[in-house]
Amino acid sequence: MSSSDEDEMPLARRPRKSGGRVVLPDKIDPAVDRQMEEESMEIDAAHAPGIAIDPAKASKVINGTSGKRKAAMKPTVKDESDSDNEPLSKRRRTVNGISRHQLSDESDDSDAIPLKSSRAKKPAKPKEQSESDFEADDSDIPLQKLSKEKKEIEKAASKQAKKEKATPKTKVTPKAKAANKRKPKDESPSDASDSDVPIAKQRKTASAKKGKAVKKEEDEEPTPVKGKKAKVKVEEAAPKKTAKGKGKAKDEEAPSPEGEDEDAEGYKWWLAEQGDGKQKWETLQHSGVMFPPPYEVLPTNIKMKYNGVPIVLSPEAEEVAGFMAALLEADQAKDQKFIENFFADWKEVLKKFGGAKDQNGKTIKIESYDKCDFRPMFEYFTAQKEAKKAMSNVEKKALKAEKEKVEEPYQYCQWNGRKEKVGNFRVEPPGLFRGRGEHPKRGMLKLRVQPEQITLNIGKEATVPPPPKGHKWGNIVHNQTASWLAMWTENINNNVKYVMLAVTSSLKGQSDFKKYEKARELKKHIDKIRRDYTRDLSDKQTMIRQRATAIYLIDKFALRAGNEKGDDEADTVGCCSLRYEHITLEEPNLVHFKFLGKDSIQFDQLYTVDKQVFKNLRIFKKAPKAPGDDLFDRIQTKHINEWFKDYMEGLSAKVFRTYNASWTMQKELAEMKNVGTVAQKYAAYNEANKKVAILCNHQRTKSKMHDTQMEKKMYEIKALMYQKWRLKKMILDLEPKLKKKKPEYFRPDAEIDNDEWIREHQEWLVEEEKKKIEKKFAKENEKLLENGEKEMKATELKTRLGVLNDMKKEFTKENSSGKVAAVGKSPSVEKFEEQIAKIEEKVQTRISMMKDKENTSEVSLGTSKINYIDPRLSVVFCKRFGVPLEKIFAKALRDKFKWAIESVDENWEF
DNA sequence: CTCTTTGATTCGGTGGACGCGAG
DNA sequence: CCTCGCGTCCACCGAATCAAAGA
Questions:
Q1: Are residue A795 and residue A885 in the same domain, yes or no?
Q2: A213 and A137 share a domain?
Q3: In this structure, is residue A656 part of a structural domain?
Q4: Bigger pLDDT: A97 or A412?
């Protein structure tokens, strides 16, 4: 673990500069442990096994409303009671809430008893032994140095160890041991079958309830059919269990008497038998993929220039140049790396497909990007776009119909004889790679995909769709365990791209359903998991302590697991890949996280953490650790997921995100009162949605226009305030005495209480008026011309513009006298007051709209709604509060969540 | 490897500002 | 003169689509 290790560090492990070296010793030196915290005794006592984490300890601190997360360096640390912005603290309470509720039934005891025994055993027996093993095995070979082969061996070993967990071997690898440590009980008899049971159970309850629900609120379908069908299904399903595949296929035919039901639309899979999850289909027929249109060369008069000279390019080179030209006014055109990568690839293309020539055929060597002028191309594209926009509706419609006709065969496939929607059947077109953040490969040329590169996955007996003329498919396979229809490898990162079914398909619906069921299953285990990792937070072994700490972060702050990444990817991190520089510790127990997460999205939050966690992080950052070093130098995501596995089958870090998100949502919705208008309820729903989004750190970049839009809105508000103030002055014109009675009322709003601004605004008003008059004049003239009459003269315009002078005069008068003459036919105080009230209302709604917009300008609600919040929660919300579902789920989401919409009543709980 | 999650980009519909004429 | 209803137009917003990135 000395720094010299770095040199020998195999590249398989994190190759980033200084990252990846193991710095910490295997075991936490008790002296260090003590040194790191004065109150250690108390803290350790507080975290003795069996005592749950104090929910109040973790409260999320979010920096105010300004939206400037970057300024989170010194946020006010809010207390839990300070509820407003603290989804997390709330969540914690919630969590304990459920545990109590949860534990009130048998699961408590069954959990508690073995837990004790497990704890009793652990320190007693194997510890000494395994720790020495750990040292012997590992002291010279840090985890990160393990080569691929070694990892393989270990995997095998750990599997082996698991098999034999009843009789632990003397000599096991650390991982095997880690796996070993978890009590066998955790994957107890119930566990194995668990994964099936809840689904079946859920299915039953859902359909049973369905029958009832239907009777009450009529859906489109006639009640008896639906209810009956549901029932029949369940009864059939239960005993069938063993019948897979074929049986399923037959199942589907059952519904058809009811109507043409053999397409996905009518197939209610959530009422049907589930397959074994391994084989995805029996028969599969589809039309392959749709290729982007071939490149069309530009008109000969459109030429980019090099060094000021128009140049002729081969179609291939022109196409690539066009990719760059299209981005001329995008951010990419200012990104050196992007340009560099583009330029290098483009030069390759030029070399391969004949370089650039001038119009006399003389070769021009392209060597400098700066001498390239893509403007003419850019302008051509812009014009094309405009032209397209300007097309008549009829033309647009025809174009759309044409497009739909071409796409038609690709839209659907036959999946086990059912019509299912295909998702991304279009092959990705060539272009410049738009890697996110500082992706080292951004700007590189993404090549056109040829049919020869494409592998089709299709049923054995199906007709293979014909490849494009003159081409062949790369490969045809019949992989029934895969859900993809087609596949190719992209040239930038050699990533595989798949064509799959649409999210509305039953296949995707099922896996979505399973995802949420898995998250719900976590409820049963979460208390034990939390107890255990809380206990492990003070474990002597560095690895265990790191693992516990990492899991704490994953659970509390919804961090992603943080797999390792290569040098040729953007430098983004998740929990396990956090480095020294990504967290800053602030006494007494604040941690400032600042790093780039998935998609290079900033994670910048200040959290209060458990004291023991704080202490641990401090140890993990202890010298000789330095910037660039892994914070968790002894663990990788797989260790975490291995640990999880013993608690629940299929549990991984991401399940925690789903669980905590849905859990938060449920809690938020439960707190809502069934009062107010639909709009208010909807707003409340969005508030809750927003809390989840913040929890998951779902952001969106403020649109470029955001600030200008805000300014504009603010100006509009000020303009309204000015109008209001003027009306008030008019009241005074009628009833001067009122000023003494209500001096407050007649004072201008603070925002416009500024002579200079008022003067500017008056000028602006005059200017606007002028524009209006001119515009109207022009329009009238146009009409006259159209009707074959002659235009009005310029003098007419002049007279019309005369009112501007009156306006100006009036303003000047008002400014000097401080009075505004009442205008209107029969001006009265009442009339003015009415108008003022109207304006005031406008002002208020605009202000709240602005606030709302500002508030959500950097939070993206969609991602959590689509991927994290169990849709059944939203359905329950709508049913309970009488909010139309369409408010919450737009068409596409209603399709995607059909299974949820049809399977719950208002009493369903996550 | 395979599939899910993710924010950006593009698309398309809507609401509200505006003009106009009728009452 | 004011109000109301209707039509038109375009900014804007949410939805659909896209493809990258992560597990």
A1: no
A2: no
A3: no
A4: A412
A502 and A450 in one domain? Answer: yes
Same domain as A273, residue A284: no
What is the distance between the alpha carbons of residues A883 and A904, in angstroms, rounded to a whole number? 15
- Do the domain assignments include residue A648? no
* Residue A840: predicted pLDDT: 82
Name the protein residue, with chain letter, whose CA is nearest the C1' of C14.
A890
Higher per-residue pLDDT: A387 or A461: A461
Number of domains in chain A: 6
User: CA gyration radius for chain A?
Assistant: 34
d(CA A779, C1' B20) / Å: 13
**Residue A332, CA: closest nucleotide via C1'?**
B8
Nearest nucleotide, CA A326 to C1': B9
- CA A848, A853, A859, A861 torsion: positive or negative? positive
- Higher confidence at residue A628 or residue A24? A628
B15 C1' – A898 CA distance, angstroms?
A: 29
With a CB cutoff of 8 Å and minimum separation 6, the contacts of A586 are A592, A606
CB A173 within 8 A of CB A179: no
3-state helix, strand, coil in chain A (%, to 5): 55, 10, 35
pLDDT tens digits along A320-354: 999 999 999 999 999 999 999 999 999 999 999 98
Measure, in angstroms, how far nucleotide C19 C1' is from residue A476 CA.
24
Question: Can A868 be counted among the known catalytic residues?
Answer: yes
pLDDT at position A167 over 80? no
Instruction: Identify, with chain letter, the residue nearest to nucleotide B2 (CA–C1').
Output: A482
Of A410, A552, A722, A868, catalytic: A868
The closest nt to A428, taking CA to C1', is C19
In this structure, are A200 and A182 located in the same domain? Answer: no
Nearest residue to C19 via alpha carbon and C1': A428
Q: What per-residue confidence (pLDDT) applies to A771?
A: 77
> Which residue has the least CA–C1' distance to nucleotide B1?
A496
Give me the domain span that covers residue A254: 192-278
Distance A441 CA to B14 C1' (A): 40
Length, in residues, of chain A? 910
Same domain? A876 vs A833: no
Give the pLDDT confidence of A106-157 residue by residue, as tens digits: 233 233 222 222 322 233 333 333 333 333 333 333 333 334 334 444 444 4
Protein-proximal nucleotides of chain B (any atom < 7 Å from a CB): 1-9, 12, 19-20
Q: Which of A170, A187, A204 is the last residue of a domain?
A: A187
- Per-residue pLDDT tens digits for A728-763: 888 888 888 888 988 888 888 888 888 898 888 888
- Higher-confidence residue: A689 or A112? A689
Instruction: Give a yes or no: residue A775 inside a domain.
Output: yes
Q: In this model, does residue A902 exceed pLDDT 60?
A: yes
Structure tokens at A185: 């009980």
CATH assignment of the domain containing A866: 1.10.132.10
Cis, bond preceding A168 (omega within 30 deg of 0):
no
Rounded average pLDDT over A284-313: 96
CA distance A543 to A546: 5
Q: Is the dihedral of CA A235, A237, A238, A240 positive or negative?
A: positive
CA–C1' A201–C4 (A): 60
Task: Note the pLDDT of residue A277.
Answer: 62
Q: Say if residue A583 is in the same domain as residue A694.
A: no
What is the H or E stretch that residue A583 is in? strand A583-586
Q: Which residue has the higher pLDDT, A209 or A271?
A: A271
With respect to residue A723, please indicate whether it lies within any of the assigned structural domains: yes
Same domain, A139 and A243: no
Q: Which of A243, A278, A313 finishes a domain?
A: A278
- Looking at residues A872-889, what average pLDDT do you find? 93
- Looking at residue A58, its pLDDT comes to 34
Residues near A435 by Cβ (< 8 Å), separated by ≥ 6?
A441, A442, A492, A570
* pLDDT, average across residues A441-447: 97
When the pLDDT of each residue in chain A is averaged and rounded to a whole number, the result is: 75
